[in-house]
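Blackboard transcription, Thursday session:
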Amino acid sequence: MSGNGHEPAPTARLLAESTGWLLNDAAREVTLRLEEALKGDDLRWRDYGVLVVLEAAGPLSQQEIGRRLAVDRSTMVHIIDVLEQRGLVVRSRDKTDRRAYSIELTEPGRTLLVEVLHPLTAEVHGRVIGRLTLEDRAHLNRILGQLVGGP
Amino acid sequence: MSGNGHEPAPTARLLAESTGWLLNDAAREVTLRLEEALKGDDLRWRDYGVLVVLEAAGPLSQQEIGRRLAVDRSTMVHIIDVLEQRGLVVRSRDKTDRRAYSIELTEPGRTLLVEVLHPLTAEVHGRVIGRLTLEDRAHLNRILGQLVGGP
DNA sequence: TATTGTTATACTCTATAACTATA
DNA sequence: TATAGTTATAGAGTATAACAATA
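(Written on the board underneath:)
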């Protein structure tokens, strides 16, 4: 990339009145740093997303995971392929619908999540969000929640 | 795409405690709608960004525009190509450094911005951000500004 | 020697469409 | 007839590296 190494995205300063630009810059800021941190474990932001979804919701079909992350089912195939090869998830046929898989977190997957990935992302997260007061963090989460929750 | 047509990105509900996910979902929400709105004028979010940067800062080199939008100079070539072909910007050689172009907004470009694009994006923006109270909007902008402005 | 714009190229990401097996 | 997963493929977007003109 060009100018987005570690400096803040400068669009913000130019267009501080536009929430859209700010949102994009902020999201890029956080995502870039998380991607950087996850690179050590050879995982992408999206892979981590799959693991987190499975941890939170239990076994799901590929399509359902994709729906929750806004990823197409054909794209999910590759993502699950990689995670399965690394032993972080397993595919087994859904008992009640044998067209679908039941994707499940393995013990190594769960361990990686708890012992490595969560601390790692929490650290990055803290570094970026750490600039904000606790009050502002709560504000931000509440406001963003309203934004994405609406119609 | 799969599940991100018009429904809110569902990651948020699952991981409401993680600002990173929320930021991504919110940014995607806004960007998708803006892209949709700009489609009528056959422009992308990023093209609009170039026009806005030029409007705010005056003539700039391709590389400088790219730096401000976090886009590589090789990518800028194509973007400016299209905008120039549509008569929205002009390339002229920089007087003091004849390696560089001076990219300038044309009158049609400025007019399109003022009469069409700004109202359009303001409308979309209002539709998404409109869910928030005026107070929350101010909060959000201030907090995001802190996030992207920091080290 | 360094830098702007350019080109060619390659890589990543993703979706579309057609297929299979199940429902 | 519809759906989950798969596959092949194609398109968009982007960066890397080498080159010409200029500094």
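Lecturer's comment: Residues 1-2, 61-63, 73-74, 76-77, 94, 97-101 of chain A lie near DNA strand D (CB under 10 Å from a C1').
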